[in-house]
Amino acid sequence: FEVTPNRPDTNGVAGVARSELVFAANDAGVQALAWIEPVGGVPQVKLRVRRLGPGGFGWSEPAMPVQGNALAAARSPALAVDAAGRVMIVWVQAGGVAVPELRSRTYDVSSGVFSLELPVHDLQPEQRAPRVVAIGLNQFVAVWEQQFGLTFDLRARAGNASNWEGVGSFTIDGRTEPVSGAKLLPGPLATALVAWQQGGRLFVSRRSVGVWSLPEEIGAGLVGVATDLRLAADRDGRALAVWIQRDGSLADLYFAPVSAGAP
Questions:
Q1: 8-state DSSP, 191
Q2: What is the mean pLDDT of residues 108-127?
């Protein structure tokens, strides 16, 4: 069924252009959708939630907007839902800041209350392409690409509804080649796994007890350029990476298992 009926927007224009749709859910039947939609001509993060099962309800929009600044253009939303139905929204926001930065906010589906809007790590160079997962009750991990000199490296930080922990982000891999295509998955016992593309190769790191492991290469020794990474994991943290390896005009499909412990 239609989550957002084809209604006029704030300018009275039907057929609103919506983009960058993301989805997240938990095992208790809470589901969340977020996307970018122009509001008053400014791209904004929009959120819908629903709960399935007994006492459930259909798709609904929070009474308040996700963003506190209606004049700040947004893009690249990311979502995660913890076991209690707390939705973490992370997005890139420009406007009122020197460079685009990551902002975050949680929404409690049971109470219908938003937390305060927070910077994931403020006063930093440009941040982009966020990913976020829930690793426990009111425990979340985010990764993103952050400008470092002339390139972008992969950063991470853990947080909750009221703050992002520590004094700053952690650099998972600061190689000179730019990072792209990161995939982030939650694991058992408050762990997380991230894999990414960098310099035509693939790397993986796991977070356990608050520490990220040293990056390991996936498909080491293969000839050509690795692209189109996909990643999935089972409940025990064992993962499978699938990607395309291009050698000149030829392209092959590869897969590799990733261990449940240190990759």
A1: -
A2: 95
